Amino acid sequence: MNKIRIVLIEDHDLTRVGIRMALLQKEEIEIVGEAANAVEGLKMLKMVQPDIAIVDIGLPDKDGIELTREFKASENGDQLETKVLILTLQDNKEAVLAAFAAGADSYCMKDIKFDNLLEAVRVTYDGNAWIDPAIARIVLQQAQQNPHQPDNVAADRKYLGSHPDSPENQENPQSYALTERELEVLQLIVEGCSNALIAERLYITIGTVKTHVRNILNKLCADDRTQAAVRALRSGLVG
């Protein structure tokens, strides 16, 4: 099995060590580099080309959003496949939307539980976006308040899946026709639960969870779990 190769870019030594120790508990993960500032981090990303870069926003020389923007701009076609997972204490909408617009693939809070961080890494590695439920609400709220604001277009399209005024986002919740069990699964998806955790909470098998998730994505016309979560919040399917 190929390991998930990760670079950590975090200026606080204790935080960086904590993240490293937590992730290395899983054999599927390999830490291939670390940096304490944006300049070193950018050089390392270009040299090592990891699967995922976990980047802190509050770097001393340049914030993680600018680092993400520069790195994404430097990607050469399909040669680089590095995904960026922003890890930060900032949950204000300006920081969130700026990170999305810069090309971040996922966004997590530093107080995230280990199981959720691991899930975020796995989801990001698979090519999907992972965002905390609180962050999903921020994106949703911003889209509802400023549906025509140009600065939000990149974030809205990436994380809502379409223009917020499009017919599919204005559908009546009943039109999705989710079953009671699918709504329970959807609620847990919005809360950031992994398939394993959903199976544990609902006393069903992981295979059954995967089937429910697949049906939910189809019914919500969503490409991934994050898009489904945002669409569910927007339509009022879950609280």
Describe the structure.
This protein has a 5-stranded parallel beta sheet with strand order 2-1-3-4-5, with helices on both faces. It has helices at 13-23, 38-48, 64-74, 93-102, 114-125, 133-145, 153-160, 180-190, 195-202, 206-219, 225-235; strands at residues 4-9, 29-35, 52-56, 83-88, 106-109. The chain is of the alpha/beta class and 239 residues long. It is globular, with a radius of gyration of 18 Å. It starts with a strand and ends with a helix. Strand 4, helix 4 and strand 5 form a beta-alpha-beta unit.
Roughly what is the average pLDDT, rounded to an integer?
79
Helix content: 40-55%
Biggest sheet overview: 5 strands, parallel
Order of helices and strands: EHEHEHEHEHHHHHHH
Number of E strands: 5
Give me the number of helical elements.
11
Beta fraction? 5-15%
How far apart the termini lie comes to: 38 Å
Radius of gyration: 18 Å
Secondary-structure-derived class: alpha/beta
Shape call:
globular
Instruction: Order the strands across the largest sheet as they lie in space.
Output: 2-1-3-4-5
Low-confidence stretches: 147-171
